[in-house]
Amino acid sequence: MSESFVEAITPRKENFSRWYTDVVLKGQLADYAPVRGCIVVRPAGYAIWEAIQAQLDARFKETGVENAYFPFLIPESIFSREAEHIEGFAPEVPWVTHAGEEELPERLALRPSSETIIGTMFARWIQSYRELPMLLNQWCSVIRWEKATFPFLRTSEFLWQEGHTCHATEEEARARALQMIEIYRDFIEEVLAIPVLAGLKSEREKFAGAVDTYTVEALMQDGRALQAGTSHYLGDGFARVLDITFLDQDSQLKFVHQSSWGVSHRLIGGLIMVHGDDRGLVLPPAVAPTQAVIVPIYKDKTRSWVLSEAQKLAERLRDAAIKVHLDDREAYTPGWKFNEWEMRGVPIRIEIGPRDLEKEQVMLVRRDNGTKEPTSQDGLASTISQRLEAIQENLYQKALKFREANTYQATTIAELSDIMSNHRGFVTAGWCGSDRCEQMIKEETGATIRCISWEENQPDLPCLCCEDTKGKPATFARAY
Amino acid sequence: MSESFVEAITPRKENFSRWYTDVVLKGQLADYAPVRGCIVVRPAGYAIWEAIQAQLDARFKETGVENAYFPFLIPESIFSREAEHIEGFAPEVPWVTHAGEEELPERLALRPSSETIIGTMFARWIQSYRELPMLLNQWCSVIRWEKATFPFLRTSEFLWQEGHTCHATEEEARARALQMIEIYRDFIEEVLAIPVLAGLKSEREKFAGAVDTYTVEALMQDGRALQAGTSHYLGDGFARVLDITFLDQDSQLKFVHQSSWGVSHRLIGGLIMVHGDDRGLVLPPAVAPTQAVIVPIYKDKTRSWVLSEAQKLAERLRDAAIKVHLDDREAYTPGWKFNEWEMRGVPIRIEIGPRDLEKEQVMLVRRDNGTKEPTSQDGLASTISQRLEAIQENLYQKALKFREANTYQATTIAELSDIMSNHRGFVTAGWCGSDRCEQMIKEETGATIRCISWEENQPDLPCLCCEDTKGKPATFARAY
Asked: Are B93 and A101 an interchain contact pair (Cβ–Cβ within 8 Å)?
């Protein structure tokens, strides 16, 4: 029975995307919904989202950001005010035309992002420099009617947060955009144990309506890149069309400068694709809703003894702030439970049976490397805390090594193309900065520019495409 | 300046609904959105919602409920499957017909409630009694295109939670519906300090598709009732049309029995209308995002001394788990700050100036009764904790007394009508149980049946309308 359970997941080498959907569906993280391109986020997946939310939210609030909630529906006249914004999003916006039997006087867009509706309110709320900076965020879902969808990574509706800020100066707004991309980087590396490259998007890849888009990019096990979070310096473009002005200390009426920034539930997809293995999900302890699962092993005679000891153990660990779950289900064998919790990525399994109890120990099994360690019950909470830290660090280091081993240089399109059609990965290569070369490279290799450095004084590197010697380094990859 | 600030709120006696919108708008709890019937929940309001969410969510999880997220859009073929459900909601459902330029093959409803979409997934996930009970909840927004809207109380989009459960038996599903209404009652009374009547809805007032709807009803200061939360026993009606079956232990294929239950951000409206006064909002400490605000009072010479002492004080209180905010804004006078924080309902104000510091004391001012108390800095955290508890209890008792003073008996329609056109309030009167009498009473008096007891063996009370001697007591009121 346990065998068949493990076999249910397609091996990564056989078919990576089937492996991924197996982990998502069989691990009950999500399911396909009966609405095109939409998923249901199931409790095992939503608990990860809650852990992400709680920790990111605390980091936002530490920097003065406050949460709010803005309407899901945006009147067309407001949504279409910023030309690039509407142009970028219009193809994937669902429209509401009727409520009940009544035809609405104006079509309403289902928000793909809330710059316009929030900007409209900023215009009403901001009068003078005293109200600045205004730092808002909302946790919500948005809709983008995508053609090709993939659970968590690209869905027609997705959960995310979107931060929107207004500042008196360009300098301050840019600093905020950078501060938020650093918060994302720090969170994704420290908590999700996923190393990321932070950089600037090219004109072609940037957010519709932004002056500059900062991004953090992660490398998946199949060598494809995942854009994990973005932060935009919006300039005063939205402010000009939405009339968001303030009376400055010098008595001049000025437009505000803005930033916006977001991460979505695709981070869960990233967790799966960076850390997962052929047994299923592998969760970093810092984001795992359950950090340790206790599986009691008993026969009829030893049942009540083992269960009562397991309960005591669970309480002791809970008191030590370890997120522990006791799996005391009667309908399943220990072997079945081992496999299920491995598939669900719980960092540590604690096996406890009569022989362990006699020796006053338990068996600790690490999900990340499979090591089994008979461990004294004495000081167990502190041993487990140490192991959790070790797992967190190991997962990060493993992912970092993988990225380093899969980062290449290319000097010709042929080289880049060769890498993209074989093992893939991140490729550093020169780019002249022109849209034309960027598009040609994409067409010939399937790779897009994931990011360029925002630091000045980058060394010259001849353009991969036009061989202009004044090119600068850019990171290319095929992306989700 | 401080005077004009207070005058900005319309007195309750002058115009209760204008007083309410003044508190909402000037207290920056919410603002009108440029979308019909929608509001923006601003940070001061959203922080209250976060406090409600956190505490309710913990109570749900203690009973085994897990969170998930289901699509916002429901295909018409699924939404219309349960006849009473679609009939009840259809008039206020917005429909999506197009995404971008593309016409959709089927109209999509914006969810007014998620029984049908969640039920469709239950049908897929539940195979046998082993998966039961299944206890899910989602925190989200829903859309009901209302004709008449009012901030927080009735808006076209609103924030809420909706719990949905499946059980093997009617008994278990009913017990869950009752358990949840008790959780709502307990939370609303203990945390929001709002006394509620719990009872059963009449056929006319119950949820579209439910067998029975349990409700908790609160009395506002203008004598109108507010339905504060509902919990439904759904029977197997949705299970039959959505085919949610399970193989029971006796090897029979059976339909599940269901419950669903929800509260929304109208609870914030209830908080305002129950506890507020002519100076603005009054928040119970258990749900106040800020429990105490420190207002430093200084002149140029004493500025740095007072501010540094105020900062130390804030840290000490924070360490004692008191939610404290230090208002060190330079652009506003202490008097202006007093009024602002009163308007925003912060339970305790702490004034600290040079004379207080010399005496090693601060001035504590209670929001609920205005008392000023010079208080030693020694043991201040514990003094404040005691005051917060006293405020919480005082608000509840005040609201309870108000409800008791505004609960009446009526034996004729004329009496009920008289009460409704004067002071209003809850009215206990007999009702024969017929829809006809219920409707006649509503037409003549404006009052609806808020709830009837779910306990059996209620005493006979002649029907207010038809004078049938076998009537049973019901609670009538005009409602929001």
From this structure: no
**CATH number assigned to the domain covering B2-275:** 3.30.930.10
Chain B CB contacts of A38 under 8 Å are: 71, 73
> CB B358: neighbour CB atoms within 10 A?
8
CA distance A219 to A426: 7
Contact between A117 and A140 under an 8 Å Cβ cutoff? The reply is no
Domain A407-477 falls under CATH 3.50.50.60: no
Q: What are the Cα distances from residue B51, in Å, to A272, A348, B54, B192, B370?
A: 32, 33, 5, 10, 25
All structural domains of chain B with their residue ranges? 2-275, 292-387, 407-477
Homologous superfamily of domain range A292-387? Anticodon-binding domain (3.40.50.800)
Spatial CB neighbours of A474, under 8 Å, sequence gap ≥ 6: A202, A428, A429, A430, A431, A449, A451, A452
**Cα-based distances in Å from B217 to A461, B151, B374, B394:** 71, 19, 39, 20
CB contact under 8 A, B66 and A78: no
Write out the CATH class of domain A11-275. alpha beta
For residue B402 the two structure tokens come to: 């108000």
DSSP character at residue A107: E
**Pairs of residues, one from chain A and one from chain B, whose beta carbons lie less than 8 Å apart:** 151
- Sort out which chain B residues have CB atoms less than 8 A from A149's CB and list them: none
Say if pTM beats, i.e. exceeds, 0.90.
yes
CB atoms closer than 10 angstroms to residue A443 = 8
Residue B239 region by backbone torsions, left for phi larger than 0, else alpha for psi between -120 and 50, else beta: alpha
Tell me whether residues B136 and A43 touch, CB distance under 8 A: yes
Sequential pLDDT tens for chain A (480 residues):
444 454 589 999 999 999 999 999 999 999 999 999 999 999 999 999 999 999 999 999 999 999 999 999 999 999 999 888 889 998 999 999 999 989 999 999 999 999 999 999 999 999 999 999 999 999 999 999 988 889 999 999 999 999 999 999 999 999 999 999 999 999 999 999 999 999 999 999 999 999 999 999 999 999 999 999 999 999 999 999 999 999 999 999 999 999 999 999 999 999 999 999 999 999 999 999 999 999 999 999 999 999 999 999 999 999 999 999 999 999 889 999 999 999 999 999 999 999 999 999 999 999 999 999 999 999 999 999 999 999 999 999 999 999 999 999 999 999 999 999 988 999 999 999 999 999 999 999 999 999 999 998 899 999 999 999 999 999 999 999
Over the range A142-167, which residues count as b (16 or more CB within 10 Å of their CB) and which as e?
bbbbbeebbbbbbbbbbbbbbbbbbb
